[in-house]
């Protein structure tokens, strides 16, 4: 049959799509199995013949794909789909390299064909089905990898990029075999715990390098065009119409894509597109900020390193953009990557914490990859890049507004659900629609991956650009992902001497808006050293001063951080994406760890190095921003942006900026509305004023994450409300860190219950937090850090409350760890001094870590402190205690925790203005009805809460 015949071309496509599809389906096969396996069967697939979790915490390839449903089935389906492109790839490689009389191309083609069949052998015959044949197929496949790899290298056409990447990937593949074998021996022969996990990482690396090696053929197959030709006219001419239509659409898209995205008249469609892009930015920030709080659940319950912390490294997936095949896929098929990122929003549907965490990790991985890819794809189109940066910036503001409206919880986080205030389903539906709408166009730079290197020689360094962008990303996340974070830094108790979360959170959001506008219209100002100097001073003021003075520094810093986004992102796009954005997220992770280390030093390796060094973290952050300013100036990115908006300002840019301003205005109006609705009334009333009764409680609330990794504020509210607590001390309450989601449980509780709130020593004081909620006005409060030479810092709040016209002091205190005896002794002396120094009636709501009537207990209950135990006969206590003086004790109860936390609620009732009385207990029937404990907690109680230990109040 002749090779060339006249006929109608029904369809045609570039040969590179064979490589793309092969790469995509192969990676999907392995990594979908990995994600699903770790989500559903984590403990089973990490277990080997010697060890299980926590010694082994990452599965091998065989364990992932071999035995369990549904990951095995999904893997096999994807491999079946991959087989078509695989056979086509081998055939195209032969056609590319074949020469008359040459033997090598035929040999390599046969090796590729046999190797493909062998792959099917070990995929569809698992070790469980037939261990021997599985190993035969697998070993034969690996053996033939050597001639296939060397043959492809030897026959490679003269394509510099393809040859370079083949050498790199081949070197990585064979280099990985050495540590792979070493750790396999350590596991199999020496039975070293954890060796198989390390072996598994190298095994997965082989998969990456093996598939990546074949993906390089995309460079070579670009010159091929595959056609379906109708040589007999059986299509009746339909092919002509189809081909003409596709060609015409393609031509229009290539010529007018930027204009279509940024142009057109002012319309609802244009505004809708802007809103969709902004919501895409909101998705990124929602998924990224959810990672910390879901990871935090595990060390919280393990009381130390759990192993799951490794998932914070899911952010470094932009390193994969250094691989041409991955870069092509990310940039040319953004809808796929964005769709996969939605796993972070789907995670709420999973009730079990472990698979939920892994879904979030997958969502973060794909989100970071999509973000970096989208920035770099538009590097040569200032308008589209500007749109992406704007969406990123306004997405952060939208995220902050959403948290502001929901008392610091993002309604689409995976710790939220329909019961505790989540809007997960709505958020997910909007996200799907946003992905479909925002990814319907191909990025403008996708066809020219090397144009930057060929056309422009930009100054600066990718490492310096990455350092700057990492510092910026950390600053945005740690300080601006919630509007109240910086307010809690400068909060210093009562009387109020500075901002409060509502309404002043709107000030923070307004400052973010000002910074956004500077970055949008005058980005060249952002990278001046004068602005950097002013902001450095502002950061110092913010860190060292309380009240309004500190907050003014915070507002300046907010403006600066937002203004830096455009020049820093543009600077990063001037370099190789894998290196720059990969390093960005790696350095960002290091800063996140440092940010945690300053307070978690007692539980982490090397903790003392950063103990209480928030000042150092802040200084490093500003230094990184300085490096970024230097890099941005060196790359000339700010001047380009400035010129774009001056002389060469186009109609499309003006329209786009109009949409951005409309969106920003809407967000600011929403913020102001929320501030108005949340404005505190300060007219709170106690539950039993007629009896002059005050019901107090102490509760260690485990950072507002319940036993199943759901946000627990609403369940806490229900318990506090039903117990009719007028005053409650909450311990482990400081959530204003990345790892805890930058939250503040006191905002929701205080507003919903109608209580005054005092957020104890702020996040910059390095404690796990103490908080006080009160129905009574807080006249004065001071925050204290008790001596802690070795262990974690011990926070305390000493507040004076106006109880029915009488001043009563309440002291909320969290002692140090059991292991640090000297710390606890010194802390007991410090609290004794505070109690002794108070001239007023006093209630201590505390976590003491001592046995009744032993050790430090006798310091707290002493002649000097003048304090009394609410129930000296209760010998079964260790952590929580209620002490008092100057009030008449009415009752005492211990209420079970339910599944909200790991610690019970202790409740004490007192009458203000009466003498203390004795410790004689009476029957409940002899207690006035208004002073009794709620009956709903008797017997089985309600929602898992009941009177326990004594089975009834005393």
Topology:
Layout: E1 8-14, H1 16-40, H2 42-45, H3 61-66, H4 71-97, H5 104-124, H6 131-155, H7 160-188, H8 195-215, H9 217-221, E2 225-230, H10 238-262, H11 268-302, H12 324-332, H13 334-341, H14 343-346, H15 353-377, H16 382-405, H17 424-438, H18 451-455, H19 462-480, H20 485-490, H21 501-521, H22 523-526, H23 529-544, H24 547-573, H25 577-600, H26 614-634, H27 637-644, H28 651-677, E3 693-700, H29 713-722, E4 727-731, H30 745-753, E5 756-759, E6 770-774, E7 778-786, E8 794-803, E9 806-814, H31 821-836, E10 842-847, H32 857-860, E11 868-869, E12 880-885, E13 888-895, E14 905-911
Parallel strand pairs: 3-4, 9-10
Antiparallel strand pairs: 1-2, 3-14, 4-6, 5-6, 7-8, 8-9, 10-12, 11-12, 13-14
Word description of this protein:
Helix 31 links the parallel strand 9 and strand 10. The chain has 954 residues and is α+β, with helices and mostly antiparallel strands. The strands form three sheets. It has a six-stranded mixed beta sheet, with helices on one face. Strands 7-8-9-10-12-11 form a six-stranded mixed beta sheet, with helices on one face. About 5% of the residues have low confidence.
């Amino acid at each position: 049959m002749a090779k060339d015949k006249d006929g109608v071309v029904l369809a045609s496509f570039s040969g590179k799509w064979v490589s793309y599809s092969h790469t995509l389906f192969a990676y999907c096969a392995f990594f979908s199995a990995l994600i699903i396996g770790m989500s559903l069967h984590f403990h089973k697939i990490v277990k080997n013949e010697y060890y299980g979790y926590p010694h082994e915490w990452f599965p091998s390839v065989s364990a992932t794909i071999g035995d369990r449903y549904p990951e095995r089935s999904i893997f096999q389906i994807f491999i079946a789909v991959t087989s078509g492109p695989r056979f086509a790839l081998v055939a195209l490689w032969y056609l590319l390299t074949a020469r008359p009389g040459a033997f090598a191309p035929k040999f390599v083609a046969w090796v590729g064909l046999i190797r493909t069949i062998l792959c099917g052998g070990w995929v569809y015959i698992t070790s469980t089905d037939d261990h021997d044949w599985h190993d035969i197929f697998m070993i034969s496949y690996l053996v033939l990898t050597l001639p296939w790899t060397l043959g492809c290298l030897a026959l490679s056409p003269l394509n510099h990029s393809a040859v370079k990447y083949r050498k790199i990937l081949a070197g990585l593949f064979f280099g990985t075999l050495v540590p792979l074998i070493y750790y396999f021996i350590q596991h199999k022969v020496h039975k070293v715990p954890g060796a198989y996990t390390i072996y598994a990482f190298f095994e997965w690396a082989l998969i990456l390098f093996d598939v990546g090696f074949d993906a390089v053929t995309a460079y070579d197959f670009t010159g091929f065009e595959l056609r379906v030709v109708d040589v007999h006219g059986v299509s009746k001419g339909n092919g002509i119409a189809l081909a003409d239509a596709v060609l015409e659409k393609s031509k229009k898209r290539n010529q007018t894509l930027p204009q279509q995205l940024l142009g057109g008249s002012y319309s609802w469609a244009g505004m809708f597109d802007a809103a969709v892009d902004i919501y895409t930015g909101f998705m990124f920030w929602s998924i990224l900020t959810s990672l910390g709080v879901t990871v935090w659940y595990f060390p919280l319950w393990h009381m130390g390193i759990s192993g799951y912390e490794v998932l914070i490294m899911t952010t470094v997936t932009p390193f994969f953009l250094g691989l041409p095949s991955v870069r092509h896929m990310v940039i040319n098929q953004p809808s796929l990557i964005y769709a996969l990122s939605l796993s972070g929003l789907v995670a709420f549907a999973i009730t079990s914490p472990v698979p939920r965490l892994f879904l979030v990790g997958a969502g973060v991985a794909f989100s970071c990859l999509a973000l970096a890819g989208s920035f770099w794809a538009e590097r040569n189109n200032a308008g589209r890049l500007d749109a992406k940066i704007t969406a990123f910036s306004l997405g952060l503001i939208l995220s902050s507004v959403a948290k502001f409206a929901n008392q610091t919880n993002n309604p689409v986080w995976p710790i939220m659900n329909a019961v505790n205030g989540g809007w997960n389903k709505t958020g997910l539906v909007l996200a799907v629609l946003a992905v479909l709408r925002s990814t319907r166009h191909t990025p403008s730079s996708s066809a020219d991956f090397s144009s930057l290197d060929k056309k422009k020689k930009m100054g600066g360094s990718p490492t310096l650009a990455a350092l700057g962008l990492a510092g910026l990303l950390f600053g945005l996340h740690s300080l601006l992902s919630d509007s109240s974070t910086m307010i809690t830094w400068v909060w210093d108790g009562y009387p109020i001497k500075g901002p409060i979360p509502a309404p002043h959170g709107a000030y923070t959001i307004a400052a973010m808006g000002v910074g956004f506008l500077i970055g949008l219209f005058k980005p060249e100002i952002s990278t001046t050293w004068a602005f950097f100097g002013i902001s450095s001073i502002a950061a110092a003021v913010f860190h060292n001063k309380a009240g309004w003075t500190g907050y003014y520094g915070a507002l300046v810093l907010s403006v600066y951080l937002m203004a830096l986004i455009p020049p820093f992102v543009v600077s990063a796009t001037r370099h190789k994406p894998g290196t720059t954005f990969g390093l960005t997220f790696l350095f960002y992770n290091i800063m996140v760890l440092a940010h945690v280390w300053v307070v978690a030093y007692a539980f982490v390796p090397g903790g003392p190095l950063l103990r209480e060094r928030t000042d150092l973290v802040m200084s490093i952050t500003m230094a990184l921003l300085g490096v970024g300013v230097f890099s941005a100036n060196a790359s000339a990115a700010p001047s380009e942006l400035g010129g774009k908006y001056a002389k060469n300002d186009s109609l499309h840019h003006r329209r786009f900026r109009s949409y951005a301003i409309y969106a920003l205005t809407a967000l600011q109006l929403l913020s102001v509305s929320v501030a108005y609705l949340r404005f505190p009334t300060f007219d709170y009333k106690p539950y039993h004023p007629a009896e002059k009764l005050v019901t107090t409680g102490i509760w260690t609330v485990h950072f507002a994450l319940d036993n199943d990794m759901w946000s627990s504020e609403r369940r806490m509210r229900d318990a506090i409300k039903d117990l009719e607590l007028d005053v409650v001390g909450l311990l482990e309450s400081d959530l204003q860190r990345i790892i805890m989601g930058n939250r503040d449980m006191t905002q929701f509780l205080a507003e919903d219950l109608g209580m005054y709130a005092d957020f104890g020593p702020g996040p910059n004081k390095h404690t796990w937090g103490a908080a006080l909620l009160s129905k009574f006005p807080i006249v004065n409060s001071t925050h204290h850090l008790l001596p802690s030479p070795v262990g974690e810092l011990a926070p305390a709040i000493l507040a004076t409350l106006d109880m029915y016209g009488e001043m009563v002091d309440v002291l909320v205190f969290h002692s140090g760890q059991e292991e640090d005896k000297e710390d606890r002794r010194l802390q007991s002396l410090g609290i004794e001094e505070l109690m002794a120094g108070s001239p007023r009636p006093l209630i201590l709501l505390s976590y003491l870590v001592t046995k009744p009537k032993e050790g430090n207990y006798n310091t707290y209950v002493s002649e000097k402190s003048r304090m009394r135990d609410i129930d000296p006969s209760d010998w079964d206590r260790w952590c929580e205690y209620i002490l008092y003086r100057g009030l008449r004790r009415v009752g005492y109860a211990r209420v079970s925790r339910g599944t909200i936390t790991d610690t019970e609620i202790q409740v004490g009732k007192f009458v203000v203005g009466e003498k203390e009385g004795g410790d004689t207990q009476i029957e409940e029937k002899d207690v006035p009805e208004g002073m009794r404990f709620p009956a709903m907690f008797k017997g089985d109680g309600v929602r898992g809460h009941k009177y326990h230990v004594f089975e009834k109040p005393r």
